[in-house]
Fold this protein.
Amino acid sequence: MSGEFDIIARYFAPLAADEGAFGLKDDAAVLAPYVVTKDLLV
């Protein structure tokens, strides 16, 4: 890992402790009763 992914893993993933956040390893989250995802088109 490098750059953006290192920053996410080091600083933000530990804050996302809820199981619905999936440890920030996916671009989705569970906000019951919904599953939310975000994709970027450039």
